[in-house]
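Page 47, continued from p. 46.
Same chain as before, 228 aa.
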Amino acid sequence: MQTIIEIKDLVKIFKDTAQEVCAVDHVTLNIGEGEFTAIVGPSGSGKTTLLNLIGGLDAPTSGSLHVDGKDISLLKEKEMTAFRLHHIGFVFQAYNLIPVLTAKENVAFVMELQGRKKDEIEQRATELLEAVGLGDRMDSRPAKLSGGQQQRVAVARALASKPKFVLADEPTANLDSKSAENLLDIMEKLNEQEGVTFIFSTHDQRIVAKAKRIITLEDGKVVSDVRK
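Result:
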């Protein structure tokens, strides 16, 4: 299995006027291509912070973080933005779709930013929405879609850029049980059939049950790392 994320002695300290909080405390991990990994732990354990560091949304205090062979902790903000666009897909708890765009336009938008050809954008956006079961809702705007459908659009959008991996921060938190199960089935299928790498930050035991690897954090430290 090819390593796509290499984390060495990673530390993230948040400072305020009263105290320092070590949200990620000397974490060392490798994540390979095609993994379906859940990062779990109690609230405040550092799950979301670790995910944000991997995604380049936060800068580490110390340590190194290589993604696809590049130490992203050394990138300037503009370089990091470009790197995220071409290498990392994101699925957020709050969907974060653009309200004035249709489902298809939301998926296409990432590829337009990448400068891809119009025909390629059209074909891939259509294929991805069909893959997540929304072939009949491509022209619907987010307000006309259920929460589960919006999150499926978000998954399609995350895959549109052909990223090295997808980061999903509590992707089922705002969904009812049936929608959550449907979304997880889709992501599991994409992982198994197309080799898409998923890394979740989650409390959801349904994700934990489907994950092939479970990394447990407590107080910013890795206390368990189990492959099924």
